[in-house]
User: What shape does this take?
Amino acid sequence: MQIVLLAAGNSSRFYPYINYGHKSFFPIFDKPIIYHTLKSIQATGFKEVIVVVREKKQLEEILKHNTDLDLNITIIEQPEALGMGDALLRAREYLQDSFFVMHAHHVDFADFAEIISREKTEKDQVVLLARKENDIAKFGVLRVDENRVLEIVEKPTNADHVSNLRLIGIYLLSIKFLDSLSSTKLEHYNFETALSEFAQNNLVTYVETQEESVSLKYPWNLFALKNYLFNSQTYSISVNSTVATNVTLEGTVIIEDGAKVMENAVLKGPVYVGANSVVGTNAILREGTVLSANCMVGANMEIRNSIISAGTHFHSGFAGDSLFGQNGRFGAGFNTGNKRLDRQGVDIKLDNKILTTGIHNLGVIVGDNVKVGINVSTMPGTIIGNDSIVGPHTMVRKNVADKTRYYTKFKEIITSITED
Assistant: This one.
């Protein structure tokens, strides 16, 4: 069985982490997400993988440094983001029979591969993975007759949907389907259109899963993906790390080569500490924190359920339920608000749209190369763009654009005490 991974889109909704190229190249545990997906494929025993990317060089570099991937990988370029259908047709000459297609963030592929494969009983049959959803307006939804798929309705209204089964995004296709795809007009949803047309004259069935599948549309989806990956990790302290004798380690803790954990620090797993990172005296890392390579957490700093990308340094303060890009610098007294006072879900403004995250604990989302002065605090759901500077004693109440200086204006008042 062959696998086609799609990793060539613009990922514009993944702002501010757009400097990585496709979102599947964002690193977690100091490995790009696509690496974790390839490991999941490897766990199934499948060997033949075709990856569609914008530029070959980026993936080739990853494969060169991760020799534990025992797969036969063919790389195909899609220089322009022309959609899923176009990407798949570019792989056509390498495809032989039935094959899986999915986006490159599906680190959970091994959980579903067997149940999908079992459903296929005929040569030209197509099998879709689906899950019941209460709010189906944001998804591709199936119109079905018993187990047979009759149509895919994209982002349906309540009036035009006939089931609450939405597509997960892992497809088992036949080579015959590509004939329908190639004759469908090239547009954003031509893949779904071709599936609907194929279903009219061919056998298309679905497998329903009760499990949540990993999604990666927006940056805050990284929390669920990170938690999924933590579930497969085991306690591991490198012999080449330095951990003080009075450090508290609880639960699943991973500490990589060259890392230093200093006196009285507390690590309450799951926690990951990357190579050559430093966790200072009395610092606390807890509940799903990923501290990537070459980071520094100063004395008395507390970090909860956050992803800190490589090379970022903190002095002191609190960071909760937040995402931080590479090479950031955060002065003393930095604090994130991560919960609304009314305890409602946190909304985020992106591209002049208000997006409902469905998350009640959500702090700040910070891009790469951001510098933040002392005594800065951020409101829940704010975004600080790449290469920006936030001045001291500032409350970040709204999004900060890329390459922006953001300061709170304050007035110095000096009076004589004797005049009062």
